[in-house]
C-alpha cells in the first residue's frame, strides 16, 4: 500500500466494486493509499477483480439484504479496524413503461438503487459516530436532475439518492460525518459500450453521443473515481450535502 496519497491511513468500503465505476473507485482508492474492502454479489467477477487489484479485499454481498450488509460491515471492521469512507456505488439501470411496470419490478429497482444506499449507510453509521468522523459518498446520476424518455423509474430512484444524501448530511454533520453525492453522465463502462454496440449503426450512435458533450468525449470510470476520492479525502473537508456532476459538460447545454 502506498505510504502517501489523499487517502493514506483511511479505510474504505465500496459497494458494487467488481466492475465498471466501482472497480475504478477501488483501484483509485488503493492508489491513493487507502485500505479497501469492496462488496459485490457477483462472486466470480469479484474474485477476479480482487486478484487484479492487489491489496483489495472482496466480500460477496447482496446489498439489498440487510443481514448480508450487516455481516459484511462487521467483517470489514474486523479486518480494517475502522471504516472512514463508505461509497454506495451498487445500482441497476432498469427502464420500464409506467403503465405496464409491475409492483414487483418497481420494488426491485428501488431496493437496489435507493433502499440499499440507506441499508449500507445505516450499517456503517454507528462506527462513524463513535469515531466522530466519516465520509459517505453516494453514486447518483445526472438522471436525478435531467432525464430522457424511456428512463422510468431510474430517474426517480436516483433523485431519491440525492434527497437521502441531503438528509443524511444535515443529520450527521454535527457528528463530523460528511455525506455527498456524485452524479455521472455517460461513462465509458462496459454497459454503455454494449448499448452503443447494439444500435443499428454503432459508429453513428457514438458520434451522436460525443457531439452533445462540450468536451467532445464521454468521461472514463477513472475520472469519476477521482472525484469520489476527493470527496472521501480531507481536501473536501468543507463539503457536505453536495452533488458533484461528472458528465463532460452534458448537463450545461440546451438540447439542440
UniProtKB/TrEMBL annotation:
The keyword Oxidoreductase is assigned to this record: yes
Source species, domain of life: Bacteria
SUPFAM superfamilies: NAD(P)-binding Rossmann-fold domains
Short name of any one Pfam family annotated for the protein: adh_short_C2
Gene Ontology molecular function: oxidoreductase activity
PROSITE patterns: ADH_SHORT
Protein family according to the UniProt entry: Belongs to the short-chain dehydrogenases/reductases (SDR) family.
Protein's name according to its UniProt entry: Short-chain dehydrogenase
Organism: Actinophytocola xinjiangensis
